[in-house]
Amino acid sequence: MHLSRQRHRLAPEESFRQKAGKFVKELELMDMEEKLQRVAPWLKKSFGEHPVPSFEADARTIDILYELAECNESRDGDVNLLIEDMKQKAAEYESDGSYLQDLLTESLNLSFSSLSKMSTSYLNNLVDVALALETKDTSLASFIPAINDLTSDLHATESKNKDMEFKLSNLRKKLTSALVLEKRLQDDLVKTEELLVVEKAKAENRTQNMKFLKDKSEDMKSRIEASEKQLSSSGLEASLTHASLVKLSEKLAEIKKETAPLEKKLESYLDLPPSASLAKVKIEEAKRELAALEAEFSAKVDMAVLSVPFSTKRPFT
């Protein structure tokens, strides 16, 4: 009973949901039809004489085309308004021109056809200048501010050009320095590579020499060991070996250094005779030689004194 009541309650809700879903689908279909009715003429207008390409008429495609159509129509409306505004301004300018022309004709009896070729050229140049300067008219009050603006723009542009030239000059200097440095580094790199090749060859040569010397040293060592074994087997004394002789030579050099001052002291006694009697004889001989030398010296001094002439006395007048 409880389940049957619950089913009776759910049945109206399901039917309501189904009806609501159908109603929403119908609204969507109506909306799609309205959008399609607006999109179709826009597509025909856009493609003109060309046929409209076929497309899948689903909801997403129609929505995109509908948005494009609205944007295009809005843009076309803005363009039409701009065209109308330009037409209105052209009509106003034409009316002002006609008024000024009538005024000149009535007051000064001047017309465009009565102007000379040079005057017409000047007038056209004046109009071209006004258009180039974007002034509202050809009066001095319009030309002077426009020319001042152009002059200020010219000065600003010249200042910017000077700054750019200065920066460009600095960049050129830096570029030149960088190129010089690059060239120098390249030269150094080439020299380093060449030096590396030479040093590598030298290192290989040294390695070969070291290997040769090492092999030679090993050979000499083995030969020395063999010779020492042969000498030891033949009964050679240890004092006659090379190491013992080197040690003895070093000891001999030390002894010579120690005896050198004693030898100098001994040299002063080598001239003396070996006995005291002979020493006395030597002393007497030395005394006699000294006395003879003194006598000879005195005689030479006396002779030198006698040989000097005396000065003659002259009477004082």
From TrEMBL:
<dbReference type="GO" id="GO:0005813">
    <property type="term" value="C:centrosome"/>
</dbReference>
<keyword id="KW-0175">Coiled coil</keyword>
<dbReference type="InterPro" id="IPR026243">
    <property type="entry name" value="HAUS1"/>
</dbReference>
<keyword id="KW-0131">Cell cycle</keyword>
<dbReference type="GO" id="GO:1990498">
    <property type="term" value="C:mitotic spindle microtubule"/>
</dbReference>
<keyword id="KW-0132">Cell division</keyword>
<keyword id="KW-0963">Cytoplasm</keyword>
<keyword id="KW-0498">Mitosis</keyword>
<dbReference type="GO" id="GO:0070652">
    <property type="term" value="C:HAUS complex"/>
</dbReference>
<dbReference type="GO" id="GO:0051225">
    <property type="term" value="P:spindle assembly"/>
</dbReference>
<dbReference type="Pfam" id="PF25762">
    <property type="entry name" value="HAUS1"/>
</dbReference>
<dbReference type="GO" id="GO:0007098">
    <property type="term" value="P:centrosome cycle"/>
</dbReference>
<dbReference type="GO" id="GO:0005829">
    <property type="term" value="C:cytosol"/>
</dbReference>
<dbReference type="GO" id="GO:0051301">
    <property type="term" value="P:cell division"/>
</dbReference>
<protein>
    <submittedName>
        <fullName>HAUS augmin like complex subunit 1</fullName>
    </submittedName>
</protein>
<keyword id="KW-0493">Microtubule</keyword>
<feature type="coiled-coil region">
    <location>
        <begin position="276"/>
        <end position="303"/>
    </location>
</feature>
<comment type="similarity">
    <text>Belongs to the HAUS1 family.</text>
</comment>
<keyword id="KW-0206">Cytoskeleton</keyword>
